[in-house]
């Protein structure tokens, strides 16, 4: 199995990108692993220097517990809240002291994750912020648009907590 300090479970190309970014941001000595059922995402991650393995993360069997045995942090990024919840529960039941961050796909499920004591990141809020930023940049680049302070389309009015649903 993957021996890494930080593990990313699922998410396909999004999980792969997260793993690659964590390597860039992690500094020396931090290892990042990626476990996903998407063969193309796993191959691309390996090509970028991520310790990756192809395995179905929808099956929260002993693979999850074994993979987290030496990890300090786990990111659960599958496209299914029910899968992420099951993975979070398995990690908690393993009695490992692992900081767990979960991507929530449906804001209505946030309370279930918080009850487990895991950190949550709301996909809807992040996506909304990203789109608003792109639109704002496009509007400020248009002729006759200043995009300065006070402009209703400024990115300054984004939610300060991107995890908030």
Task: Describe what this molecule looks like in 3D.
This protein is an alpha/beta fold and 165 residues long. It has 6 helices and 6 strands; from the N terminus they run E-H-E-H-E-H-E-H-E-H-E-H. The two termini are 34 Å apart.
Helix content: 40-55%
Assembly form of the protein: single chain
**Category by helix and strand content:** alpha/beta
- What gyration radius follows from the Cα positions, in whole Å? 18 Å
Strand/helix succession: EHEHEHEHEHEH
The largest β sheet comes out as:
6 strands, parallel
- Care to count the β-strands? 6
Mean pLDDT over the residues: 80
Number of helices: 6
Distance between the termini: 34 Å
The neighbouring-strand order within the major sheet is 3-2-1-4-5-6
Residue ranges: pLDDT <50 for 5 or more in a row?
147-163
Kindly estimate the percentage of residues that lie in beta strands according to DSSP. Answer: 15-25%
Categorize the overall geometry: globular
Structure characteristics:
single chain; 165 residues; alpha/beta; 6 helices; 6 strands; 41% helix; 16% strand
How would you concisely characterize the structure shown here?
Helices cover 41% and strands 16% of the residues. The chain is of the alpha/beta class and 165 residues long.
Annotate the secondary structure layout.
Layout: E1 6-9, H1 12-26, E2 32-36, H2 39-47, E3 51-54, H3 62-67, E4 73-76, H4 81-93, E5 99-104, H5 110-115, E6 119-122, H6 123-141
Parallel strand pairs: 1-2, 1-4, 2-3, 4-5, 5-6
């Amino acid at each position: 199995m993957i021996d890494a300090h930080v593990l990313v479970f699922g998410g396909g190309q999004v999980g792969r990108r997260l793993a690659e970014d964590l390597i860039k941001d992690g500094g020396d000595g931090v290892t990042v692993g990626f476990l996903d059922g998407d063969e193309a995402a796993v191959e691309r991650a390996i090509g970028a220097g991520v310790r990756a393995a192809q395995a179905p993360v929808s099956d929260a069997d002993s693979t999850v517990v074994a993979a987290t045995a030496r990890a300090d942090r786990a990111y659960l990024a599958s496209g299914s809240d029910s899968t992420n919840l099951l993975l979070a529960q398995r990690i908690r039941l393993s009695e490992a002291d692992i900081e767990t961050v979960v991507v929530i796909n449906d804001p209505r499920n946030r309370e279930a994750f918080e009850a487990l004591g895991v950190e949550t990141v709301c996909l809807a809020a992040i996506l909304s912020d990203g789109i608003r930023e792109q639109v704002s940049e496009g509007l400020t680049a248009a002729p006759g648009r200043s995009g300065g302070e006070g402009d209703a389309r400024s990115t300054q009015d984004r939610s300060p907590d991107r995890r908030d649903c």
